[in-house]
């Protein structure tokens, strides 16, 4: 997916947010701010996008986003449980209606048999919280781009019901 397609997704998302009077915030780990960058790539984004946190270290996940120490020690920073707590945490921290998080292993190093490179968890916290596990392929850059695209689609699907 190219930048033009991502901008189209962002515009579709903003139409949904506008029609419902909702705001969004993001917590990112492996994407390092790419989701926030995508969300601010269109004019008028400040009406819907309140802000984001790049929580690359576990310390930031715990202290700023309030991810429980037990969650990280039991499930890992790359897990559905951590992603959900990150999404809830950024929503509470920033005061948005929706919180979205991405945590994963973009590679090329860091993968394990249980969680290979390309493993990404995306969570959305709105009225309820959902998490999806994805396994992307490609370079580090491609995995990160796919994670952003998938996160955008997750919120669009949630709001389109």
Describe this structure in words.
The protein has 161 residues and is an alpha/beta fold. It has helices spanning 3-20, 34-39, 58-63, 69-75, 80-94, 140-159; strands spanning 24-28, 49-54, 98-104, 119-125, 129-135. The chain has one domain (3-159): CinA-like (Maf protein). Helix content is 45%, strand content 20%. A 5-stranded mixed sheet has the order 2-1-3-4-5, sandwiched between helices. Strand 4 (119-125) and strand 5 (129-135) form a beta hairpin. It is globular, with a radius of gyration of 14 Å. 42% of the residues are buried. The model has no long low-confidence stretch (mean pLDDT 96).
Biggest sheet, in brief?
5 strands, mixed
Number of helices: 6
How helical, in percent, are the residues? 40-55%
The strand order across the widest sheet is 2-1-3-4-5
Order of helical and strand elements: HEHEHHHEEEH
Structural domains: how many: 1
Shape: globular
Span of the ends, CA to CA: 24 Å
- Beta-strand share of residues: 15-25%
Number of strands: 5
Under CATH, the homologous superfamily reads CinA-like
CATH topology (level 3) name: Maf protein
Which spans of ≥5 residues are poorly predicted at pLDDT below 50? none
Question: Strand pairing plus helix content: what structural class?
Answer: alpha/beta
Radius of gyration: 14 Å
